[in-house]
Amino acid sequence: MTIPDKAIDAVIVGAGFGGMYAVHRLRSMGLSVHAFEAADDVGGTWWWNCYPGARCDVESLDYCYAFDEALLHEWKWSERFATQAEVLRYANHVADRYGLRDNFTFNARVNGCIWDEDAHLWTVTTESGDRVRARFLIAATGCLSKPHRPDLPGLDDFAGNVLFTQAWPKEGYDLAGKRVGVIGTGSSGIQSIPEIARRAAHLTVFQRTANFTLPAVNRPIFPEYEAEIRADYLGHRRTILQNKAATVKQTIAESAFDLSDEEREAAYEDKWQRGGAGGIPVLFADSLTNPASNEEAANFVRRKIAEIVEDPETAESLTPRDHPIATKRICLDTDYYATFNRPNVTLVDLKKTPIERVSAGAIITANAEYPLDVLVFATGFDAMTGPLRAMNVRGSGGQALEQVWADGPRTWLGLMVAGFPNLFTVTGPGSPSVIVNMIAAIEQHVNWIADLIAHMRETGQTRAEPQEQAQEEWVDEVRRVAETTLYPLARSWYNGDNIDGKPRMFMAWLGGYPVYAQRCDEIAAAGYAGLELTA
Ligand code: NA7
């Protein structure tokens, strides 16, 4: 699309599910919109993260838009947990169906956003020199889109190929006959390791922290279950939106100790056999608040690791002991622990023998050298704040978001930021975002933003900024809710721990989707209490 010369209503950043829906929703209201995307097509995280084994960990029937019932019904998912390729096909289908690409400039990375206080307009520029002026700026930049790539000593000397799960070659990469090293055992590592092990001559996994992962038990969707949902798909959606994670409810009792030892063990076993992420850690409502309850779930998984992994030393290294289960994002896998029984797989426990350096053909640790042809980084992201800070946003009085957030992100509802009028952060820090079904969170945010913009147009307002006091209260509430849980006990990207120098702060709302959505609705119904609306 040609970039408009005249000021438009809204500029949207990102062509993931957030940006796509924002374009559709605002355009349907008759607004003029233009959107930028760094990649060459739609899909966001599903465009970039195309490593072997990449898969959604929310059930397909719930990981989709619900804004159009016809769309819900016409798209058929083939598996319980969709592959990256299938989710990307879905994103493309949506883009085609609603003509969304018409409003996008692709291969355009936003590198500057400046607020003009006199005109009440944002000026947004890209690395390639595009420039748009717009009343509203909608950052749909995703929570996990700025990669974290650790700089290992000697990495530049490595003569083999260096790959990143987050930017896997689109044309694929033939691992056959190769000696591969994977650094990182978060979700991306845990999903890709079994696949890489099947293809490579040898795989060496460099693990810094053992992580909890549960069997996905991926399979075709049971036809009776699908038929039941499709009989009233929107009703099903309304039902799951009443649950904390905006997915199907798994909790069976308030406390792990409401059941006898035998009953509890049987319940964990049942969930383990059925699979899925929302199982074992949320089976009991107190799993993430009561350390003893959490330890029951953690010990169950630890026993499973000991049963599956044949070599006791490898099993022990794979056993997480430094954080409560699910306080680092729980992973879903297919054959992860069993992969370490393969003769072509070696686990290197970096807690015992840290990486010293990389040479032309190997990774060298404190006591061994591991020859490699390919090095894969599955080392995560500068989560939540990284993508927003990278846009170089300057608000009222020229203040930089980077500076304002130097001690951690401060937002109102995870949606807006004091000092940055008319800026909206879809699934921003301080909202449920990564803790819940992301597509549900995206739709709720975009709908709220669209309703506010409609209200401003009706009432002739051109500037919206949260009051400092309202923002501080929200930041405080997010912190207080987090402190009632076990989440702050883990060193994780939820807390900013994975990036050197990043301030420690729990970055998501843990009070659950329904409470959050209700709060947003009440604020809107009260004429946007907490927001300063001016003309
Ligand atoms: P994660 O979950 O942040 O995992 C990154 C992994 O990389 C984790 O095991 C890290 O160990 C490890 N890591 C990071 N830096 C290093 C260095 N320097 N040396 C060794 N190991 C390192 O990212 P993912 O991409 O797997 O998953 C992110 C989300 O994407 C996921 O939760 C899903 O929502 C989708 P650490 O634990 O920090 O010791």
A few lines on this structure:
The chain is of the alpha/beta class and 535 residues long.
CATH topology of the largest domain: FAD/NAD(P)-binding domain
CATH 4th-level superfamily of the largest domain: FAD/NAD(P)-binding domain
Low-confidence stretches: none
- Could you name the CATH class of the largest domain? Alpha Beta
Derived from helix and strand composition plus strand pairing, the structural class reads: alpha/beta
Q: What characteristic shape results from the CA principal axes?
A: globular
CATH architecture descriptor name of the largest domain: 3-Layer(bba) Sandwich
Bound molecules: ligand NA7
Distance between the termini: 30 Å
The residue-averaged pLDDT reads 97
Tell me what the structure shows.
By secondary structure, the protein is an alpha/beta fold. It has 2 domains: 8-147 and 382-534, FAD/NAD(P)-binding domain; 155-377, no CATH class. 31% of the residues lie in helices and 16% in strands. The protein has 16 helices and 20 strands. The protein has helices at 17-28, 45-48, 69-74, 84-97, 187-199, 223-231, 233-240, 261-274, 291-308, 312-318, 336-339, 386-389, 401-404, 438-459, 468-483, 513-525, and strands at 8-13, 33-36, 104-105, 110-116, 121-126, 131-139, 161-164, 179-183, 202-207, 213-215, 331-333, 345-349, 355-358, 362-365, 369-371, 374-377, 393-394, 423-425, 463-466, 531-534. The strands form 5 sheets. Strands 1, 2, 3, 4, 5, 6, 17 and 18 form an 8-stranded mixed β-sheet that branches. Strand 8, helix 5 (187-199) and strand 9 (202-207) form a beta-alpha-beta unit. Helix 14 (438-459) packs parallel to helix 16 (513-525). The longest helix has 22 residues, at 438-459. The mean pLDDT is 97. The chain binds ligand NA7.
